[in-house]
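Figure 2 data, in text form.
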Amino acid sequence: MIFFLILAYLIATLPHHTRFSKSDGSSAGRLGFAETLLDKGTNGEFLIYNQLEKMGEPNKLLPNLHLPKSDGTMTEIGLVMIARTGIYVFEAKNYSGCVCGDEDSRYWTQSMKRGQKVEFYNPIWRNESHISMLKRLLGIEADAFKSYVVFSDRCVLKKMYVESSHVKVMNRDRLVREIIKDMAELPDIFTPLEINQIYSELAPYMGAAVGIGQAQIETVRLE
């Protein structure tokens, strides 16, 4: 029975993976379907993509953007969604254990069941750097951008202090509900035509890291 459930899941998700990895050079494209499911970071992005794709038009999804920096390196942004109510930028953290942090602390803490603690760079700050690059590239005002930091459902979020209205931190199972709620409360700022125009501007950056060498890809570790 378990085997058939797993098989059904794989069959159902394969078409989503094909679209997720359609940009040559994306991390999903390099890894392939089975490896995407096994790679924690890429799998987190893929699972978010899988959920958001079901929301349909006029939303546009852009996985695995590689934006050039002034020093010649590239910044990788896992997933962006353009919608009527704004540009949603996602930072996926496919973690387990317990996570504590707030938007003003440079480091957050992941606590594991056996007592091990690991510090990691504030994902809100990391996503803000992504938004800053997108803002400069597109020439769009900051209030059009929404920052979503999404942890796996295996992760417990504790002592999570976030005050900025454009920032959300949540588990993946809340993602679609939160976006639908936000979209219902926010005014439309883009028409379907403008959504397509923004998508066209960003689409060339999907998989743009091909040929530059992995050493030149800078993943915004600002520690």
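Caption note: The first helix runs from residue 2 to 20.
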